[in-house]
Amino acid sequence: MAVKKPAKGGAPKDKSGNVRLSHLAKPLSLAVALAAVGYAAYASSRTPAREREPARPASRARGAAEPEASAHVVHPWRRRMADVRMTMPECLAKQRKLTHIPAIWPGFHALCVESVSPSELVVLALVRGDDSVRTVRGRSVLDVLDALKPLLESDYGQDDPTIVDSVYAYPPHAWELFSPVGEHITHAQVQLSAGDLACVYEGGQFIWPGWEIGHVTNIEVPVVDASTREEGWRVVPITTVSLRPLAFELSGFLTDEECAFIIEYASKRLFPSPLAHMDSSNRKEEDVRTSTQTFMTRGGSRVILNLEHRAHNLTRLPYELGESIQVVKYQKGQKYGAHRDFFSANDYHQQPAMLASVEYGARNRLATLFWYVSSVHDGGETFFPRALNASGVEYNPWNGDHEDCYRGLAVKPIKGNAVLFYSLLPNGHLDERSLHGGCKPRGADDVVKWGANQWIWNQPQRHHGKTFPRKDRPARPASSSRPGCEDASPDCAAWAATGECSRNPSYMLASCRASCGHC
Ligand SMILES: O=C(O)CCC(=O)C(=O)O
Ligand SMILES: [Fe+2]
Questions:
Q1: Average pLDDT of every residue of the chain
Q2: How many Å lie between the centroid of ligand 2 and the Cα of residue 437?
Q3: Looking at 201, 226, 258, which one is the last position of a domain?
Q4: Is the ipTM of this complex over 0.95?
Q5: Which is the closest atom of ligand 1 to the Cα of 293?
Q6: Which of 201, 221, 241 finishes a domain?
Q7: For the segment 274-286, what is each residue's pLDDT rounded down to a tens digit?
Q8: Please, are residues 516 and 509 in contact by the beta-carbon 8 Å criterion?
């Protein structure tokens, strides 16, 4: 990942002289830049975030990335709607099961297709409130989604404090329809048949339905043979370990060769892990993240690209929504206290660049795929202290202790495995139950836990750091909305995040006043 520095006295330019942030697709530029300095939203004002010296972006670190990145090939996924066809009674049974799981998934609705003809799509919706089945018809998927809105939109109460929406107004997410294996359904006549199960996501992005704790879904993912370089497919079983947060344990996601590659790549480029700085952060608090880390240049080599495609293929989330993979190393006693991977707009009232990057609540990190690149036999688990058990209650009610590793659910670090969890709910709101952390590796002095994060967002960045009007809800004014305290470039936040305010003050303090906090 290359975040170009603004030249002394000027902003970074590409070959054609345009000011640019990086060589990556524009839509992700800020997200990727945020990732480059290890932005991570920390969970509470009780144990606030710590700020460290901004780190060097990976591409400027010693040792160039492998030069042989192949062309961007999109791998279609193998399991499609046609493989999960069912009869109407089977569909109705599954619809009931998904509608009444013992954990709240606001914004998720299972439908059964009653009939589909060239002129009409007819679906059966199950309304949670009165447990009634309603018939809904329309000419197209869009018509049906519109007709479902008044019926389904508020079928859960709004008073759960573990479901958080931004206090700012933002454009509503478009509802979308997906097959239970992640196929985006846009053309009913081509894609659907009577008896099909189809799922509505109010947040507009596919999330694997977990069904129940212990449920296993087998997903074929693209792999490349290390010696022959032949492309093929491998089945990765994903086991539901929690319904809230929705979390899965994946076995055999990485090969031994890939783990060795990641460790070798990262070892030369490590720097201390920083944290995002929220409004409430107090730098005097004890360290909450003591690991070291680095980033793998997005698409920077054949191996990296293959790993990224595997992650996107498995989650069914578009490649364009992914950040650079972050590799993290913990030695004995190092840890990452409980935190959330999303950025809550409500934590950044004083930080216009952050508010703009999450578009006031419209966009955020949706999924985390955390890979275990080495095994740790004692400690080193990923823990979820606010997870719900099979009956829909916390394992051992959370006491607010961000360091208490063994209170909720813990996933063991086994080399090659991974944990997939969602920070957003199907309606696009923040899931406070996604709170999680990394426990300390214990035992021998030379114990090491290697892991890697593939974060995937729910939306591309459409506004490139610019703010947009907020009409229906009162927005709290951010400090830099003061006249004279503005950024001249939408890339200022990313440059500031990589340390340019101190490295290149003559340009930055004049042109990025808000992001450098220079007003
Ligand atoms: O180390 C782990 O198990 C989790 C790490 C993590 O949550 C993160 O890096 O954001
Ligand atoms: Fe995390």
A1: 79
A2: 6
A3: 201
A4: yes
A5: 9
A6: 201
A7: 766 666 655 433 4
A8: yes
